[in-house]
Write a structure and sequence with these properties.
6 strands; 369 residues; alpha/beta
Length: 369
């Protein structure tokens, strides 16, 4: 609800309060809702084996920013950030811990994967050792490698990303996320040890093909039917996972996505899907993984419906309050808790209801093998 509507509700109930007082109650966080959100996210990282992620645009004081939505079956958390890139997402996963950097074996592998030129990698190897470094030290290293500040912008970013990701996986203060489920956006890649892709997003690529030739229309229709049938087999596997079934489905994936037609656009799309086999079939290794990222998209829809009510937030405090209340209400819904009663319990300082973070621990721990 927007502040004018909250004021209208109070007035209809015979409560006389100013709009500025409502704003102060929401943004000053006297009841600790921002801390509740932090605890919810930390509990989810501690107790659940995977995280789903998606993003959507939001408005903050007239400017476009992004809402990163992280979730799984036990929570949904919202983070409003100015950009969408690997470092921003990494900062979210660090839960406020200061970002550090390290050039270990993992970092050098990432540098290669991120296509940093070999001569630059050799320079980094000569200038660094395997110890944790600060932001200031990282900037000094970049000045040595790139004396001209106007050159190598993209390469600089990749170096920072590789070292920051490597340091994230080495640190022990914050639970490390090893599996992320997302769409195929580049900012979600390389952050975790394993990356699962959404089958629904992959299927949408085929829906975007718009052939005109009748033969091509027929070929696309037949392939989409086979695609859906294979997806149905994966759903059955999740209900009754067996090693022999996993081996069969892996082989069937190779057969399906080696299909050749006379429709070039379809053949190109099939080849692109084949190249994502490891990410699309991570469910064969972890049957509890969802096959799609609908949960994150539903979180993005909640953010969009909020924008229908109130177009934008105006301040840093207001944005933080918005993220916290969205996180609490959506997590409460997943845990079967009445969000209104929960918020009232906190504002009244009764504290008769257990923290949502504790409920996440109780719900999720029995599910992890």
């Amino acid at each position: 609800m927007s502040k004018p509507k909250i004021l209208e509700l109070f007035e209809n109930c015979g409560i006389f309060i100013s709009q500025s007082t409502i704003s102060r109650i929401l943004t000053n966080d006297e009841s600790g809702f921002n801390k509740e959100k932090e605890d919810i996210f930390r509990a989810a990282l501690e107790t659940t084996p995977f995280q789903q992620i998606d993003d959507t645009t939001v408005r903050v004081n007239g400017e476009n920013q992004y809402s990163q939505i992280l979730c799984n079956p036990y929570y949904t958390a919202f983070f409003t950030v100015p950009h969408k890139n690997r470092l921003i997402i990494l900062d979210i996963l660090l839960c406020g811990k200061e970002r550090t950097y390290i050039f270990d074996l993992n970092a050098f592998c990432l540098l290669s994967d991120l296509k940093v030129p070999k001569k630059i990698i050799d320079q980094i190897f000569d200038l660094t050792d395997e110890r944790e470094t600060s932001e200031a030290e990282m900037q000094e290293l970049l000045k040595k490698i790139f004396p001209d500040a106007k050159k190598g912008k993209n390469t600089r970013t990749r170096i920072v990303e590789a070292a920051a990701i490597a340091s994230y996986h080495r640190q022990t203060e914050i639970p490390v996320v090893n599996i992320i489920l997302s769409d195929d956006a580049p900012q979600f890649k390389k952050l975790t040890a394993e990356h699962a892709l959404c089958w629904i997003h992959e299927g949408r690529h085929y829906n975007r093909l718009s052939p005109i030739v009748p033969f091509n229309i027929d070929e696309l229709k037949k392939f989409k039917t086979r695609f859906r049938d294979y997806y149905g087999e994966l759903l059955k596997y999740k209900e009754n996972p067996k090693p022999e079934t996993a081996a069969r489905l892996s082989s069937e994936f190779d057969n399906l996505f080696s299909t050749k037609t006379c429709y070039d656009a379809l053949d190109d799309r099939i080849e692109k899907t084949r190249n994502k086999k490891e990410e699309l079939l991570l469910v064969l290794k972890y049957p509890w993984l969802p096959l799609h990222n609908n949960a994150s998209e539903l979180g993005a829809r909640v953010e969009k419906r909020r924008q229908d009510v109130s177009l934008q937030t105006k301040s840093v405090k207001g944005t933080k309050a918005k993220d916290s209340f969205l996180t609490i209400t959506q997590t409460a819904k997943k845990l079967g808790v009445n969000a209104y009663r929960y918020i009232y319990d906190r504002i009244s300082k009764t504290f008769s209801m257990p923290p949502l973070a504790d409920l996440i621990h109780q719900h999720s721990l029995p599910q992890i093998e």
